[in-house]
Design a protein that fits this description.
The chain is of the alpha/beta class. Helices cover 28% and strands 29% of the residues. The chain is built from three helices and five strands. It is globular, with a radius of gyration of 14 Å. The model has no long low-confidence stretch (mean pLDDT 86).
Length: 98
């Protein structure tokens, strides 16, 4: 697990991990978690990753279309809209799966 610190008016960490087992270590009580994945990966791994956060109250997932068509401004804006609807902020966690 690697932690990078972003220095702006407020410091915050970006945590990079290549293993699912690190996820419970970063979980903080009361913080929201959103797992973002694509429709090809979700059937194989989404449930397993969600299960790592069983104790968390606010775990969400968002699936994007698989392939090159998901690399678009429209999909990006859809993700932002979803996060805004769930009132995510910089204190919460995004997990990229896939």
């Amino acid at each position: 697990m690697i932690t990078l610190t972003v220095n702006t008016d407020k410091q915050y960490p970006i945590i990079i991990s290549n293993g699912w087992k690190d996820f419970p270590k970063i979980q903080k009580k009361g913080k929201k978690i959103c797992i973002i994945t694509d429709e090809n990966i979700a059937p194989y791994y989404l449930k397993e990753v969600k299960d790592l956060f069983k104790g968390a109250e606010n775990v969400f997932s968002y699936q994007i279309p698989a392939g090159e068509r998901s690399k678009s401004a429209e999909v990006y804006l859809n993700v932002l809209a979803f996060l805004a609807q769930k009132t995510f902020n910089r204190e919460d966690f995004l997990v990229a799966l896939g």
